[in-house]
UniProtKB/TrEMBL annotation:
Residues the entry annotates as binding K(+): 256, 258, 292, 295, 297, 301
InterPro entries attached to this UniProt entry: Carboh/pur_kinase_PfkB_CS, PfkB_dom, Ribo/fructo_kinase, Ribokinase, Ribokinase-like
Note on cofactor: Requires a divalent cation, most likely magnesium in vivo, as an electrophilic catalyst to aid phosphoryl group transfer. It is the chelate of the metal and the nucleotide that is the actual substrate.
First-level EC class: transferase
Gene3D superfamilies per record: 3.40.1190.20
Annotated organism of origin: Capsulimonas corticalis
Protein name: Ribokinase
Entry function: Catalyzes the phosphorylation of ribose at O-5 in a reaction requiring ATP and magnesium. The resulting D-ribose-5-phosphate can then be used either for sythesis of nucleotides, histidine, and tryptophan, or as a component of the pentose phosphate pathway.
């Protein structure tokens, strides 16, 4: 493993995240507008998001050395995103500022009374993240402890990252979100898959399947470890050692679950890269994710290692 020693004696694993970076623009409204209608917002917020970026920030806050491979626009939002990554200690040498597309954005309307969302995602530069961007980082990927991908960038790009890692014997994690069916040759490159319940059943094409049955079908497709997140209930962990539900940790308070799944995948990856077995890694990830739901937004809610270690002691 390509780990370096830290002052506290714990090894510092190297996590490479390949994925999306968005700016989430959230407007709370009394009710969502219909076609042709304009409504005024009582509160507007702009927060760094995107599943790849969220997972990279989660891993960095939890003590990993993180390299992020991504594309943002050559615009103010892109510069702001990169500054945020650098403030979190993330290596941004492979974050390209694309002059041909804007930074990805998510326009989120929140119906304040009903708590419902309407979301428009404009992927912008994320759609330009190419296999050659990943190949440019191939040396870094081959020397990493773990590589983490999601599905907000082109599938060929994801496959390239997984293949480079797989061929070098580097652990691969795929968070298959947003939900979509995946080709068998891509799944065959995944060591650890982290779907939520919706994504798990969609992947196996059987919306009536239980999380456990879906995990079994995913094993048959060549994925050795499956962790299905179950919201507040925790996560179902399935691998060669068997199947177990790691119970959820009670959140101190539930303010905003945005980014909980990303926090879970980022934290799970750090724990696996440190050599924890899948079950213990899922306990660690559940503890981290329970803290993330107590704070608003995605990236601002990712907990520190000290916060997670403190609740694991209890
Ligand atoms: N209300 C909650 N209380 C405590 N932990 C939670 C809560 N909601 C989510 N979690 C933690 O976050 C993990 C991921 O949540 P979930 O299964 O809802 O993923 P998700 O659908 O990808 O989430 P999101 O889209 O909101 O990021 C759970 O496995 C759990 O550990
Ligand atoms: K949150």
């Amino acid at each position: 493993m390509n780990t370096s020693n830290r002052a506290d004696g714990r090894t510092r694993p190297h996590v490479v995240v390949v994925g999306s970076s968005n700016t989430d623009m959230t407007a709370r409204v009394a009710r969502l507008p219909g076609p042709g209608e304009t409504v005024l917002s009582e509160r507007f917020e702009m927060v760094a998001g995107g599943k790849g970026a969220n997972q990279a920030v989660a891993a960095a806050r939890l003590g990993a050395q993180v390299t992020f491979v991504a594309r943002v626009g050559a615009d103010a939002l892109g510069a702001q995103a990169i500054a945020g990554f650098q403030a979190a200690g993330i290596d941004t040498a492979y974050v390209v500022q694309d002059s041909g597309a804007p930074t990805g954005i998510a326009l989120i309307g929140v119906d304040a009374a009903r708590g419902e969302n309407s979301i428009i995602v404009a992927p912008g530069a994320n759609a330009h993240l190419s296999p050659s961007d990943v190949e440019a980082a191939s040396e870094v990927i081959r020397n990493a402890d773990i590589v983490v991908c999601q599905l907000e960038t082109p599938l060929e790009t994801v496959k390239t990252a997984l293949r480079i890692a797989w061929e070098a014997g580097v652990l691969t994690v795929l968070n298959p979100a947003p939900a979509q069916p995946l080709p068998a040759d891509l799944l065959a490159l995944v060591d650890i898959l982290t779907p939520n319940e919706t994504e798990a059943v969609l992947l196996v094409g059987d919306t009536d399947a239980s999380p456990e049955a879906a995990a079994q079908q995913l094993h048959a497709l060549g994925v050795s470890s499956v962790v299905v997140t179950l919201g507040a209930a925790g996560a179902l962990v399935s691998n060669a050692d068997g199947v177990v539900v790691v119970a959820g940790r009670r959140a101190p308070t539930v303010v905003d679950t945005t980014g909980a799944g990303d926090c879970f995948t980022g934290a799970l990856s750090v724990a696996l890269a440190e050599g924890k077995d899948l079950r213990r890694a899922a306990e660690f990830a559940g503890a981290a994710a329970s803290l993330s739901v107590a704070k608003a937004g995605a990236q601002p809610s990712m907990p520190t290692r000290a916060d997670v270690d403190a609740i694991l002691k209890n």
